[in-house]
Amino acid sequence: MITQAVYDLAIEIADSTTMSDIEIGCPTVGGDAKTGWLYDVSNPAEVDAPFIAQGVSYLEARGLLIRSRDNPNIVSFRKDRETLKAAA
Fold first, then answer.
1. Which has more pLDDT, 78 or 80?
2. What pLDDT does 81 receive?
3. 32, 49, 55, 81 - which has most CB atoms within 10 Å?
4. Three-class DSSP labels, the chain
5. Angle 49-62/4-25 helices, nearest 10 degrees?
6. What is the pLDDT of residues 48-72, one digit of tens each?
7. Separation CA 33–CA 49 (nearest Å)
8. Which conformational region is residue 30 in: left (phi greater than 0), alpha (psi within -120 to 50 degrees), or beta?
């Protein structure tokens, strides 16, 4: 039987792993440690492309992806922004 704690841990691992895939597989195009990093998801390495596309869809469905108004291929993570605001 899966407890709520195990379920919560699985979600946290999936979120973190997916964000890491984007951080590693996509170029950083702006931002900083204070405001959150910006990633260009439009042109990942060929080997990473399926994981990046899936990760973007997953994070968007979870409400954790923020797309730039000017260019929807530039993204950041809601979790980063909330963590940074809480630390300020």
1. 78
2. 56
3. 55
4. CCCHHHHHHHHHHHHHHHHHHHHHHCCEEEEECCCEEEEECCCCCCCCHHHHHHHHHHHHHHCCEEECCCCCCEEEEHHHHHHHHHHC
5. 130
6. 899 999 999 999 999 999 999 999 9
7. 26
8. left
Model confidence pTM above 0.90: no
Q: Which residue has the tokens 């973190």?
A: 16
C-alpha span between 41 and 55 (Å, rounded): 10
User: Phi and psi of 34, rounded to 5°?
Assistant: -80, -40
Res. 78 pLDDT band, cuts 50 70 90: confident
Structure tokens at 84: 């940074």
Distance from C-alpha of 53 to C-alpha of 73, rounded to nearest angstrom: 11
| Cα 34 to the center of its chain, rounded Å | 16
CB 18 within 8 A of CB 58: yes
